Amino acid sequence: MQLYTLRGEMDQKHLNFDIVVIGGGNAALTAAVEARLGGASVLVLEHAPKAMRGGNSRHTRNIRAMHAAPTSVLTEAYLEDEYWDDLQRVTGGQTDGELAKLTIRSTQDALPFMARCGVKFQPSLSGTLSLSRTNAFFLGGGKALLNAYYATAEALGVEVLYDTQITEVTLEGHRVRRLKAVSKGFPLELACKIVIAASGGFQANIEWLKEAWGPSAANFLIRGTPYAQGGVLRNLLDQGVASVGDPTQCHAVAIDGRAPKFDGGIATRLDCVPFSIVVNKHGQRFYDEGEDVWPKRYAIWGRLVAQQPDQVAYSIIDARAEKLFMPSVFPAIKAESIAALAEKLGLEPTALEETVSRYNAACVPGDFDSSTLDGVHTEGLSPPKSNWARPILQPPFIGYPLRPGITFTYLGVKVNERAEVIMRDERVVENLYASGEIMAGSILGKGYLAGFGMAIGTVFGRIAGKEAARNVRY
Question: Which domains does the chain have, with CATH numbers?
């Protein structure tokens, strides 16, 4: 790939690259490392400045991995059939089975690859023990993961340009011919050999979200990077690349309503829902809070809250539940009575008192156990609560405001098992590959499984890097 128009700090350089990777997160870096190990010269174009590099990977903390026996950080075994069943359950079958099973099987090789890149792992800690068998946690979280990848890539000779936004990916026929970008305020144009698109979804583009969701999207909070504007995705779809996924489907969780508009990350997530009742602005419950264990259901709650008036809800617990979950980064809202709590939350006191009273009366006594599906449920209540249905009786009463926290969108480009991008006429784009959130809709039609986004990005990043390097050679 020849750099032929650039003004600024790279003047006087004449560089040629075999492969350009668009993006700077997990999916991009795994692709860049594999492509470089395959003998190709590689340039990474990261939209964000260096201090904000890494996209949503900055906020991640684990990857879901298949394994046949215990490892240094994973307990017991987690085999393909169970992994597949878990994915089927959360997606309702809306997944490409071949690509999904390829992802699942490939995760058993992911951890050794990551370790070779300097990524370190730790056992599950308190609050994540339910994932100790399925998910490997990164020591130091997403930033440490990214630092390891960048250090490995740079040691291998991968070049990185930060603060570089792609403005156009030019397709002619079934090939990418050139890239246009703005790099640190200066125009950049590159003639192409091979491109890997790993630039994420469009979740930070509020206007695009409004196209799918309507005006309610203005109330969404974006958990991850503000740089996920979807420019590359839109550009490719406008030029005839086949799309997959529904623009209204996304990884959306319920987060603290006081979180910032962008980049609040995982710290803003609220895990109190299973042990609470959740009400809308009218003080009414709207879904079964105890339907399943939290790692298999937390990702539905952003969408549920998004469907409520003003896209807001409130989680209500009593003092007995306060220590059962990781607390919010914001102070709990407390009161000595349900009516007083309602006033602090901006709810109508009588409506909330009546909802709590009906819930308490419907709770069936049982052996409460926060660590498992305990079957402690309600009877005669709609919607029901299937587990952890303990009356809200002991002051102080506690409330948290909830809003939809969008992590990433599922509308993306269609790819095959080699990570090659497919046009609407079903032909392959000869020199374009994709990995990560920009193609995850092929596998995640709806719903989410904890750690699965990292699995997709790692697996398809590695596939894209290897295939692109092989294509350069031939």
Answer: 2-206+410-473 (3.50.50.60), 252-405 (3.90.700.10)
